[in-house]
Amino acid sequence: MLCSSENHRMERLALPCFFLLLVSIFTSSDAGSIGVNYGRIANNLPSATKVVELLKSHGLERVKVFDTDPAVLKALSGSGIKVTVDLPNEQLFAAARSKSFAASWVQRNIAAYHPSTQIEAIAVGNEVFVDTRNTTRYLIPAMKNVHDALVKLNLNNAIKVSSPIALSALQNSYPSSAGSFRPELVESVFKPMLDFLRQTGSYLMVNAYPFFAYESNSDVISLDYALFRENPGVVDAGNGLRYFSLFDAQIDAVFAALSALKYDDIKLVVTETGWPSDGDENEIGASMQNAAAYNGNMVRRILTGGGTPLRPKADLTVYLFALFNENQKNGPTSERNYGLFYPNEQKVYDIPFTVEGLKNYHDNRSPLPGQERMTTPPVSGRTGGVSTSSAGNTWCVAKGEVGKEKLQAALDFACGEGGADCRPIQPGSTCYDPNTLNAHASFAFNSYYQRKGRAGGSCYFGGAAYVVTQPPRFGKCEFPTGY
Fold first, then answer.
1. What residues are annotated to the active site?
2. Residue 466 class from Cβ within 10 Å (0-12 exposed, 13-18 middle, 19+ buried)?
3. What is the domain extent for residue 420?
4. Which pLDDT band, with edges at 50, 70 and 90, does 7 fall under?
5. For residue 105, is it within any domain?
6. What percent of the chain has pLDDT over 70?
7. Number of structural domains found in the chain
8. What's the CA angle centered on 75, arms 71 and 122, to 5 degrees?
9. Buried b / exposed e across 1-13, counting CB within 10 Å, b at 16+?
10. Of the chain's two ends, which shows fewer C-beta atoms within 10 Å, N or C?
């Protein structure tokens, strides 16, 4: 989960009547598809068997998981639910280096369950370009080895191979027509990856979160624009197209980036998008009402058919993030409140997931009395940290005693979903040395902390960080005090 930004003031022009067509209901054959991400970083979730029944009872026919847990894949057997599984980032090196490892992985985690478990895609890694372990160079070889293993088992036509990218992989995202990939990734990664997708008939996986763009630019981005509500729209000065949602603008920036490299034929699947129902005080827009509006209107936007302004015929498959609130996730409060359901299987807010359910759906702009903050109990440490108003210069550093596993997970979050500036700790950069987990994590945590304005709760990371009042010292690296 990474953010992109939209830094120009939106035009206030008359609303064309054709925007109202978005509320009409088409048949499912004319529309896209809605799925859900089933994350399990929690200690209070129902069994996989119960989860499958939950998915079926709400008409959700696609699910994406972040591993290949046998209990989950077995529970999905015979359910009719289409499944996307993940080969984790930490296994990219092995899959790239060894064809036999990739073949064994596919045999053990895919062939052993398919077709009874309807695995339709393998996500090789996740947002690899922001992985601090420098796994980008292993991505393409790993994808090819996994695909070759599928070919040998005659599964390559049924199961596609791709890899989710975050919007941070774009050099430019505004206006949409100027969308382009980061130049240092074009020749080394994107062109070979897109060639591979074209040759194998696969598609590009993209994680897009308008919430992050709105949170960072709420003074210039209309909330209605971010939540798919009626609004005057924004005209793209580059191509003259009018956008009525930030989501469409973000997706078209990716399409424009593909077009710039002459890969207009590559299809796109949105593997993650969502909006948190609760957040820290500085997480502008994180609320029950906004989450219900974003996800409910997203379902309507996708199931009523039609593509984006740039690709009007490109009906999208979109996976909402996430199925449950996950109480053991690192980061700010929002990270633990993206769920559509509580662990007791009750809806966090009432939205439909099917065309039938949309017939009675209305985007309620005001929460019902007493439901303004219907969220899970506060997480311990949520109000930790030191606010800018009460502390002069403060920094956030890693707490080494929590152990390597927890520290690495928190570092991955900070440089990934958290949006910390981790470029200085990449090989050859100014803060790469000393090359230790503690030093790199401290730099990333501090970057996140400073970017959040040193707000309460932004130096927590699941207990893996704490605030100091003296400048941290790691070699010659200087830690910033603000952005």
1. 127, 272
2. middle
3. 395-468
4. very low
5. no
6. 88
7. 2
8. 75
9. bbbbbbeeebeee
10. C
Please identify which residue in the block is written with the tokens 């449950």.
324
For residue 322, give both structure tokens.
């996430």
- Give the confidence band of 483 by pLDDT, cuts at 50, 70, 90: low
Assess if residue 421 is contained within a domain: yes
Same-domain pairing of 167 and 275:
yes
Do 52 and 188 lie in one domain? The reply is yes
Q: Is residue 132 part of a domain?
A: no
| C-alpha to C-alpha distances, 70 to 74, 112, 201, 310, 438, nearest whole angstrom | 6, 10, 28, 41, 34
First to last CA, the chain: 21
Residue 315 shares a structural domain with residue 232: yes
Q: Which residue has the tokens 């987990």?
A: 437
Q: In 76-119, which ranges are continuous DSSP H helix? A: 92-97, 99-106
Q: Quick one: angle between helices 404-415 and 437-451, nearest 10?
A: 40
Q: How confident is the model over 394-426, as pLDDT tens digits? A: 889 998 888 888 888 889 888 887 888 898 998
In single-letter form, the type of residue at position 27 comes to T
Does any domain span residue 122?
A: no
Pair 278, 402 in one domain: no
> Is residue 447 domain-shared with residue 328, that is, in the same domain?
no
Helix 136-152 × helix 191-200 angle, to 10°: 10
pTM value is: 0.74
Residue count (the chain): 483
364 with 437: CB under 8 angstroms? no
Quick one: 348 and 443 in the same domain?
no
Distance CA 274, CA 84 (A): 18
- Both 187 and 240 in one domain: the answer is yes
**C-beta of residue 325 within 8 angstroms of C-beta of residue 45:** no
Q: Judge whether residue 201 has pLDDT over 80.
A: yes
